[in-house]
Amino acid sequence: MKEKLLRVGTTYIPVTNVELSSNWYVNKLGAELNFKDEDKAIINFANQSFFLVKSQDNQTLNFFDFHGEERFSITFEVNGLHALESIHSEFIEKEILVGEIENRGHAGKNFVFYDLDGNKFDVWSELSPIFKEKYLI
Q1: Contact 60, 14 (CB under 8 A)
Q2: Coiled coil where (predicted)?
Q3: Cα distance between residue 101 and residue 81, in whole Å
Q4: 6-57 CATH pick, 1.10.3720.10, 3.10.180.10, 1.20.1250.20, 3.55.50.30
Q5: Is residue 1 pLDDT above 80, yes or no?
Q6: Residue 98 β-bridge partners
Q7: I need a labelling partner for 89 at 20 to 30 A (CA). Which of 27, 69, 98, 109 fits?
Q8: Hey, which residues does 102 pair with through a beta bridge?
């Protein structure tokens, strides 16, 4: 059976201040701003569209697993350990809240970072083979 769902088109991220958050994503992560009003902003980066949606206080994408550990819901990929170390250093220079680079017992290494509202994201050093093939990386 051929795949029917072809890709994730948009991810919705809760934010408390659309103006501040959209500026943060543009200035800190290099996102491209496509649209903004009082309730939402549409940005593109990492080959995807993200909607920053005005939400109530203390809402994030994060969740807690059955061990009580806070988890992220999105992992971004970079092409190799050098790229991971480089972006980690860049994020620190840009004063983005980041965790340490860590070995989680699987291929590659990771680190986490947070946006202004505490949305937790992961970065992994292993770029998908399908993505590499498609974009000739």
Answers
A1: yes
A2: none
A3: 10
A4: 3.10.180.10
A5: no
A6: 113
A7: 69
A8: 110
